[in-house]
Q: What sequence folds into this?
């Protein structure tokens, strides 16, 4: 920590922002063993730095293994002091934060399991209150807002409508209430989540800033990507990107297309670009789920599971695909893979379980601008509806319209466009009242 002491003079400033978040490994945006919050945090902070170069940014994040590190990257100070599933490491975090006495604002990027399991999550509550006692202004970016664990039963390994799920659902609401008390502002990534949380804690604290889109991605060449992955031009490739997760409906997708080799005269290929979730990997119910999914996929030649996709290969997966699908069972967070689809300007479809995402204003305006209707990209959560929508999108005009929709939404959600809103939220004193529904971005 001698390096930290030398850098204190530079970063201990009233305009400094202290950010508690998971964060990618050095010189990466997407690291194996990290959750989606990591890449989101880095992209957001790079955009914020560009928007306001006067702000010094200190990222307080997870250690790599048990090794604590301090280094500068992209003119940000990275302090790896938190240890996954070790609540006592919050004490080291607090000691580190207390060194930055002049810094007024702390931003917490929160997603369940990003710092560890239940004890780590519960211990976050006293940490937030301790930060307030240190006179820090706290902004929490809530990546997930869900009150009913019955909607997530298969993902967390609980019996639906059981006593246990009822207790945990009750506890979830109180967790959101308590952790929000010391916060100056709560940022959520979709309007639906602002409505949910606002009803629970009051609307004055909660605002919507959509999940950003990384516009710096180098788009891969379609022909090269297809050749690498073994697809030919007559193949219609449907992409599922991300961790293998029950709530994301990967098993439903496989079951839908396991016996369908052709549609509209074209070969149907299902590309599942992802592997097991590192936060769930050791849990017995999840191991059973992954085993079931991978076994079923292995029995069908038209379905491919790649395993974890390295950062340099992500764009290849999108470039090789014709359509990206999100067959989610529930809407609990904004989708990182959807953001990547927008980065790559790919047409997408999703289940009606995600239709509340359309409440966010930029969706509304882009739908109006492009003439796309919700039924053009949404399906009921059953195989017949999904297959019928895929058939529809295989038509040239339909796919072109959905591509225009994706491109237009991508521009509005650029991390750089959203940075001004984060800059104002993170100010010690807000210069103006930010629209909770982010109207100016939508227009």
A:
């Amino acid at each position: 920590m001698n390096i930290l002491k030398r850098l204190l003079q530079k970063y201990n400033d009233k305009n400094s922002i202290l950010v508690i978040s998971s964060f990618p490994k050095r010189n990466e945006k997407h690291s194996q063993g990290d959750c989606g919050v990591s890449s989101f945090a880095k992209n957001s902070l790079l955009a914020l730095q560009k928007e306001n170069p006067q702000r010094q940014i200190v990222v307080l994040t997870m250690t790599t293994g048990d090794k604590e590190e301090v280094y500068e990257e992209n003119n940000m100070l990275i302090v790896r002091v938190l240890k996954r599933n070790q609540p006592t490491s919050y004490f080291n975090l607090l000691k580190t934060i207390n060194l930055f006495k002049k810094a007024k604002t702390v931003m917490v990027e929160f997603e369940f399991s990003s710092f560890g399991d239940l004890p780590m999550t519960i211990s976050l509550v006293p940490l937030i209150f301790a930060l307030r006692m240190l006179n820090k202004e706290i902004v929490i970016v809530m990546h997930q807002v869900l009150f009913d664990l019955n909607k997530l039963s298969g993902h967390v390994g609980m019996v639906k409508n059981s006593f246990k799920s009822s207790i945990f659902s009750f506890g979830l609401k109180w967790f959101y209430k308590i952790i929000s008390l010391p916060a100056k502002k709560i940022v959520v990534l979709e309007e639906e989540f602002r409505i949910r949380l606002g009803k629970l804690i009051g609307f004055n604290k909660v605002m919507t800033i959509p999940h950003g889109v990384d516009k710096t991605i180098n788009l891969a060449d379609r022909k090269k990507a297809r050749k690498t992955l073994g697809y030919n031009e007559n193949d219609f490739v449907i992409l599922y990107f991300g961790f293998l997760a029950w709530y994301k409906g990967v098993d439903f997708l496989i079951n839908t297309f396991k016996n369908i080799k052709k549609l509209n005269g074209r070969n149907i290929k299902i590309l599942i670009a992802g592997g097991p979730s590192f936060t769930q990997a050791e849990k017995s119910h999840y191991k059973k789920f992954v085993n079931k999914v991978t076994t079923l996929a292995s029995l069908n030649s038209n379905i491919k599971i790649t395993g974890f996709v390295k950062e340099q290969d992500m764009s290849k997966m999108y470039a090789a695909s014709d359509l990206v699908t999100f067959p989610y069972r529930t809407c609990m967070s904004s989708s990182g893979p959807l953001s990547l689809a927008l980065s790559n300007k790919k047409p997408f479809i999703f289940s009606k379980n995600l239709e509340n995402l359309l409440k966010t204003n930029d969706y509304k305006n882009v739908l109006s601008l492009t003439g796309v209707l919700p039924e053009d990209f949404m399906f009921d959560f059953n195989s017949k509806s999904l297959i019928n929508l895929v058939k529809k999108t295989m038509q040239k005009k339909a796919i072109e319209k959905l591509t225009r929709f994706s491109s237009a939404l991508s521009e509005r959600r650029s991390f750089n466009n959203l940075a001004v809103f984060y800059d104002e939220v993170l100010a010690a004193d807000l210069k103006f009242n930010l629209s909770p529904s982010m109207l100016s971005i939508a227009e």
Remarks:
- The CA atoms of residues 188 and 208 lie 5 Å apart.
- Residues 222-412 form a domain with the Rossmann fold fold (CATH 3.40.50.2000).
- The two ends are 47 Å apart (CA to CA).
